[in-house]
Write a structure and sequence with these properties.
The structure holds 2 protein chains of 2 kinds.
Chain A (H helix, E strand, L loop, with lengths): L6 H15 L3 H9 L4 H12 L18 H13 L6 H12 L5 H9 L4 E5 L6 E2 L5 E6 L2 E12 L6 E13 L4 H29 L1 E2 L2 E2 L4 H27 L2 H26 L10 H13 L4 H13 L2
Parallel strand pairs in A: 1-3
Antiparallel strand pairs in A: 2-5, 3-4, 4-5, 6-7
Helix pairs in contact in A: 1-4, 2-3, 4-5, 4-7, 4-8, 5-6, 5-7, 7-8, 7-9, 7-10, 8-9, 9-10, 9-11
Chain B lengths: L6 H17 L11 H16 L18 H13 L8 H14 L2 H12 L5 E4 L15 E5 L2 E12 L6 E7 L10 E7 L5 E6 L8 E12 L3 E2 L5 H14 L5 H17 L6 H26 L7 H23 L9 H10 L8 H12 L8
Helix pairs in contact in B: 1-3, 3-7, 4-5, 4-6, 6-9, 7-8, 7-9, 8-9, 9-10, 9-11
Classes of the chains: A alpha+beta, B alpha+beta.
Amino acid sequence: MRFVPDEELTRLAATVHELLADADVPAAVRSWAAGESARGLEVLRRLAKVGVAGLAVPERFGGAGAGPVELVVVFEELGRHAVPGPLVESYAVVPALLAELAAAERWLPGIVAGEPATVAVAPHVPYALDADLATPFLVRDRTVHTGLPGARRESVDAARRLFELAPGEEVGPARQAFDLGVLCGAAQLVGLGRGMLELASAHVKQRKQFGRAVGEFQAVKHHLASVHVALELARPLVHGAAVTGTGADISAARVAAADAADRAARSALQVHGAIGYTLEYDLGLWLTKARALRSAWGTQSWHRERVLRSLSSR
Amino acid sequence: VDLDLPAATVAFRDEVREWLAANVPRTPLPPMDTRDGFARHREWERRLAAARLSAVTWPGEYGGRDASLLDWVVFEDEYWAAGAPGRVTANGVALLGSTLLALGTPEQRARILPRMARAEEVWAQAWSEPEAGSDLAAVRSRAVRADGGWILSGQKTWSSRAAFADRAFGLFRSDPAEPRHRGLTYLMFDLRADGVTVRPIPQLDGTAGFAELFLDDVFVPDADVIGEPGDGWRVAMSTASNERGLTLRSPGRFVAAAERLVELWRQRPDPALRDRVVDAWVGARAYRLYTLATVSRLAAGGRLGAESSVNKIFWSELDIALHETALELLGPDGELASDWQDGYLFALAGPIYAGTNEIQRDVVAERLLGLPRGGR
């Protein structure tokens, strides 16, 4: 048993982190939200170059053929930097949906190269992200269709550009890919929480009140320590669910991850004070994304119910 | 990243499971912190020791099995799932034992550990003093040099197991000229020695789980100093890290309690309590997986530092939430004496002992998040 990422995977995570730390992701998020996708798409292309886009795509389509464990480690880094775009959709769900279909050849090589794809999965994922600039798919009645973008819906996260989809042509029978979306979303939430904790820790070290750094005050320390505990305990649930792949474990991971991210958001906002509440400051990019992801890929209530159902039926 | 148990661990788990099924007392023992209960728990420890299951991670020469930390996690899973008795030897085995293995002399290990493993000597901790609680470095009890040893005097308090235990360990100020963390010496002493008065203190549940110790010129030989005189703080911190970190509260205890909670939910499903039941179960699973990650890191040569504070905060708060939920599920019977009620009262102490959670949060913020040290 070795229940921590090995060196290779740790290195991949570090590569993704360094790439994103240098990419001025917050600027890309802001322009993405304003409908200017060039900067964001450039980030996605750079991620594709280091193998992130093709990570879970089978090798015969140019991907790495990796599994959920590799995905969750990378998705934590994507969340940590609040990367915009249909990430869960492009890197996890659509490859899983298409991999065994004849249509895979048509779309998967593009995904590996960094062209985004998106998907709506009834009933929990009714809207597709960025359907105007990604290849949209729609899962309905256990069938994959191409998607025809319809009305735009506003998300609390301005960088999540949601679209209603109508079914286009039929692509093939849908494999179970919803849980992989839930799992990667959970990893992204842990990363979002970690990103907010890092922002908050940096802020309270330099912000002075009453003649000293506010991070010296116990009330502030304890907020952030509690966030750290919640995130550190959520991560192993995500890794464990990636290993076992059961619906109940994935739901358990998601419940803990979303609650930890929520705690991170609330505490980070609180210790920032008013500056954190402004549109200009970066915290909101993380905070609104965490809030949005909490409602996407199943609600907390639905996931808790699934955990309990599985416990009661043993 | 995997969760596959090696074949040797699976074999060990099966052996432990079988042994427990044949040996765990059918009716629960009387409370540990009563005279009769203490004796019965000591007997139980002797049975465990005869099967070499009382300190599985210790080397074979001291009564253990050289079990890996992973084996220990699995042992604990089985132990608590089987509903086996609480461990009256925990202060000794988990705290002092770990310290002796890390920093004791070969003579000390050979003399003390086998007797500890067989519960021939049950140990109490003697950390706190009336003026030194969270601020442990403020201890005032003195150790004064004497011919061949030290003379101890002063007062210890909240000394777990001391009401009925045989020996105790703690910190004493051996050089009053040195400030706080320096000039402290880690000493072991006999609770029945001349000059020791033990005054049991009843806890919330009515049993004497801890005691006050009055030391009036108690002689301790040099052989019972752990580490160098004056180096006691460092020695104590090695024990504290074990206590908070890994060995005092295994995941098995919480996983077993969460399973019982789910069983209670099946009997009395109250929809208003659904989220709390799920969260308790998820929390126990999280703590188990977190521990397995820690075990993996240690096996790869990592060290347990301030991370142990993360554990302690988490399990102590999980324990209370879990037992509160059970009492709620019991409805009006939640008030009645029951195992859940006992567990609840026990859990209430968790955020206080082994370093309060306020101190642990300071440690997390300062050492793991890099926040500046400041006034408490």
